[in-house]
Amino acid sequence: MRVVINFLLTLITILAFFSCKKGDTSSSFSASGVGGNWKFISISVHTQRTIQWTYDGSAFRSISNSDYTSTNDSGKVTFTSGAMIETGISYKAYWNFYTYDYINNQLTDSLSDPDFANISQFSSTSFSKLVGLDSLYITGQSLFSTKIGPFTSASYGAKFTINGSTLMMTSSAVRDTVINIGNMVTAQHDSLSAVTTLEKE
Q: N or C: which end of the chain has fewer CB within 10 A?
């Protein structure tokens, strides 16, 4: 069974939900170091989809992976105590979906499907809230929304670290789905991880 991860699965940076302590003031936002203007440097994304089902006494499993790091990056992100402003975000990314099919844990087939993304001059303003001193909670339409297939979250978050003039936002997302196909029930597990790199202007 050939499985191709939905294009939206790897189109954009994915930001996940995090459990963090509460707290959000202008002073703490400044103290975190994340406030101000940042140049967009790159996005690195890893995705995996696993689908499993049983048919006629045999166990089937299909695993698809993809990885990319963006190129031709441009644009900026501005963080304030109340907003994340994305201005002119552009990048290109090329990757392959590598799919491996198994029957009763024995590899039976493998394939590679190329795909690409071309993001051009994306701009948006979202509500931004600092949680603790190392996480952001964001609500609104953003290039950095949590998106797995057709599912999109209106609220999302990311852990961040600052090293000198470099800001790195690390994020992840997971979704489990049960799909009924005729008399078969399939279990689908999607996972994504991403690192977005910004540089202080």
A: C
